[in-house]
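Researcher: Quick test of sequence recovery. Tokens follow.
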């Protein structure tokens, strides 16, 4: 399974109002293992960066003045993510910007390029309802070192998100492991299947008494509606 963990930085908050992408960062995972294969680009947005966005990521128009425009990186980016499942924190935001940029170049949109999108923010909210689930909070919760994250950055945030996502979904590794082959069935000389003797462990008197006591408590709490007691009564 190929996944790409992705993040973007932008000139502002609204792609529909003309805000543009200024940075894309991607890291690749194969079968839940980071491969070290990355995609990263700074992009000249051809417009002014909002003061609020600048305070978040610290990327200035002067820094981006000599960087390529999206049209110049669009195909390389598309090739990197093509066919992969994308993992994005607050996916609607990034996908909205990516689709706006790709649409300007008449290129396939995210849903056509990728094998699907996993919103790690939605996943975090399902795992931790009623709690904050920002990337910084999740790093603290899963003990991932983000001390070097003083400002947002697409590649850095994608790297941190990959670790967070793996921590949040820990346990899925077993779904990717090859099943151990079953040992061949044992047969006797005639070819009949030899079945091992089963050990039957019966409850002792103390355990039976504890069971009856528990059923009595359930029956009392349910005002006589304990199904186990009803089944035990003679017809």
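Model:
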């Amino acid at each position: 399974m190929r996944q790409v963990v992705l993040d973007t930085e932008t000139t502002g908050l609204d792609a529909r109002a003309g805000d543009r992408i200024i940075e894309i960062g991607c890291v690749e995972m194969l079968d839940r293992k980071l491969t070290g294969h990355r995609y990263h680009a700074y992009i000249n947005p051809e417009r002014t960066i909002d003061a609020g966005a600048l305070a978040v990521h610290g990327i200035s128009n002067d820094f981006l003045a000599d960087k390529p425009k999206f049209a110049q990186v669009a195909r390389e980016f598309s090739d990197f993510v093509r066919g992969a499942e994308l993992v994005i924190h607050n996916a609607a935001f990034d996908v909205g910007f990516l689709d706006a940029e790709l649409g300007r170049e008449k290129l396939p949109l995210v849903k056509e390029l990728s094998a699907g999108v996993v919103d790690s923010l939605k996943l975090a909210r399902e795992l931790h309802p009623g709690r904050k689930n920002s990337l910084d909070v999740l790093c603290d919760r899963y003990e991932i070192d983000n001390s070097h994250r003083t400002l947002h950055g697409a590649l850095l945030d994608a790297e941190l998100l990959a670790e967070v996502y793996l921590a949040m979904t820990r346990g899925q590794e077993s779904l990717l492991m090859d099943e151990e082959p079953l040992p061949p069935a044992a047969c006797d000389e005639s070819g009949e299947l030899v079945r091992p003797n089963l050990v039957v462990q019966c409850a002792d008197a103390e355990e039976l008494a504890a069971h009856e006591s528990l059923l009595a408590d359930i029956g009392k709490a349910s005002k006589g509606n304990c199904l186990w007691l009803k089944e035990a009564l003679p017809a």
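The radius of gyration is 28 Å.
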